[in-house]
Design goal:
The protein is mainly alpha-helical. It has a domain of about 150 residues. It is built from 10 helices and 10 strands.
């Protein structure tokens, strides 16, 4: 039968044809294991910030400590400075007097000279602004509270400006320096730690500005020539006073000549 023969041929051809290979599904890569520890953050400027580091640490980085022997500048507590001298191999730089305070800035009276611990007084004829800068540049040895006071005063100086600061608290200009009251001359003392001295200094500056503004606005009084009162005589007519009267009223002794 032809139909049966054709069916057998179709089945035979299908058995002979190779099977279609199965396509394997792509393997999905396993997610990487979480890294132990905090993930670094990225700052606004794109820099990688190490985890656990504060803003101050990022800004200032590693700073030399007293143990590094760096004693050519800066401010230290007495214990820190003594340790730095030892670390630098120069223990002779330490003086026992420094325990009460010391600065290499020459514009100041040393605490061991004045007899007041941690008290630095500006000498006459010295620029208060420059003396403060030199005090901070150091090397300066002082109580941590005294160091904090110096830094706060420097903020006042920065806001006020060096010229006005000198006029108020110590100046190389002899005229300005002579007008500064002793109680107003700049000093850095541990006793100022609980005193609102910054506000007091700014108030002095405001008072100075107000006095200058008042002097500029007030018109100068016109110069008045010395006048001698005219003496009326009979008939309502005035005449020039006699020379004797002029001399008497002006307080001038008139010399008389005798023949």
């Amino acid at each position: 039968m032809p139909a049966l023969a054709e069916l057998e041929q179709v089945l035979a051809s299908q058995e002979a044809a190779p099977a279609t290979p199965e396509v394997a599904e792509p393997e999905v890569a396993a997610a990487p294991a979480e890294t132990a520890g905090a993930v670094p953050e990225v700052a606004d400027n794109g820099a990688v910030v190490d985890p656990g580091e504060t803003a101050s640490e990022q800004a200032f980085g590693d700073k030399p400590t007293a143990q590094s022997g760096d004693i050519d500048g800066g401010m230290y507590s007495p214990a820190e400075y003594q340790a730095a001298c030892t670390a630098a191999g120069t223990p002779d730089k330490w003086d026992d007097r420094y325990a009460s305070g010391h600065t290499e800035a020459t514009q100041w009276t040393q605490p061991y000279d004045s007899g007041y611990d941690m008290t630095f007084r500006l000498q006459h004829g010295q620029s208060a602004s420059q003396a403060l800068k030199d005090f901070i540049a150091g090397p300066t040895i002082a109580d941590w509270r005294t160091i904090a006071i110096a830094l706060e005063i420097d903020e006042v100086r920065d806001g006020m400006g060096d010229t006005k600061f000198d006029q108020l608290f110590g100046s190389k200009v002899s005229g300005d320096d002579a007008r500064i009251p002793p109680s107003q001359r700049l000093q850095i003392s541990v006793g100022m730690y609980t005193v609102p001295f910054a506000a007091q200094m700014e108030a002095l500056a405001e008072q100075k500005d107000e006095s200058l503004d008042a002097s500029e606005e007030e018109p100068a009084a016109p110069a008045v020539a010395a006048q001698v009162e005219e003496k009326p005589v009979e008939g309502g007519v005035t005449q020039e006073p006699a020379p004797e009267l002029v001399a008497e009223e002006l307080g001038i002794e008139r010399e008389q000549e005798f023949a």
